[in-house]
């Protein structure tokens, strides 16, 4: 009789290891209550700090695409005001009208738009900073996000963008083991065939730092800063520190600028 014990033991160990990776690297799915509360992530703080380096004017107009409850947007406004900036106009865009109530008492103009296809209801060359964090991976037509952002930004205006890194080291291990990357959903309702169940997040696009850089340049953006940053959980930041330096970190964070045509030609 064939002894299957070693094969079964190895299989169970691999399954257990993959479950640990899923737990480690799984997307943070926020409840409605969390979305309404203070929820500013590491990539927001990183990008907002970088923006300070490249902002020219002290009088700013700001917009957030895929704003949700607008917590990062409001945090950014407060962050800028503490550093002496004057906020002139603020716009918030989302596909879901339920978020409108979060801006009723704020001096923020909320619009319902589908950034896959809609034009932003803002005139050309009128915005200093656009926040677009954790939105591009959800879009069927991400090109519209970039073309509309470029259109409404002023010369020298900034696009602050973040997205999960499909090249992160956890995803590479999962692919080798035959599983789907955490960054991409398997199905609409469920992530089938993964070693551990976790909710779908609506991620239909995956980006590496290289892909994102090339896409932004195709839409005439100048890359000011692009890097990957570690896992948000403090326990794992040390593990992620070196992979992040190699472009294998948890998130891709990018600060891109609408530059002059002659500057872009030289880049």
What would you say this structure looks like, in words?
This protein is 37% helix and 21% strand. With 267 residues, it is an alpha/beta fold. It has one domain: Rossmann fold. The chain has a seven-stranded mixed sheet, sandwiched between helices. The chain is elongated and about 75 Å long. Residues 26-38 have low confidence and may be disordered.
Amino- and carboxy-terminal Cα gap: 68 Å
| Second rung of CATH, namely the architecture | 3-Layer(aba) Sandwich
**What kind of sheet is the major sheet?**
7 strands, mixed
Radius of gyration: 20 Å
Low-confidence residue ranges: 26-38
Number of strands: 7
Which class in CATH terms? Answer: Alpha Beta
Structural class: alpha/beta
The outline comes out as elongated
Tally of discrete structural domains: 1
The strand order across the widest sheet is 3-2-1-4-5-7-6
**What is the fourth-level CATH superfamily?**
Vaccinia Virus protein VP39
Note the total helix count: 9
Order of helices and strands: HHHEHEEEHEHHEHEH
Question: Notable features of this structure?
Answer:
37% helix, alpha/beta, 7-stranded mixed β-sheet, 267 residues, Rossmann fold
Task: Set out the fold topology.
Layout: H1 5-25, H2 32-36, H3 42-54, E1 59-65, H4 71-82, E2 86-94, E3 109-112, E4 127-133, H5 142-152, E5 153-164, H6 169-176, H7 209-218, E6 221-229, H8 234-245, E7 251-258, H9 261-266
Parallel strand pairs: 1-2, 1-4, 2-3, 4-5
Antiparallel strand pairs: 5-7, 6-7
Briefly characterize the structure.
The chain is of the alpha/beta class and 267 residues long. The chain has helices at residues 5-25, 32-36, 42-54, 71-82, 142-152, 169-176, 209-218, 234-245, 261-266, and strands at 59-65, 86-94, 109-112, 127-133, 153-164, 221-229, 251-258.
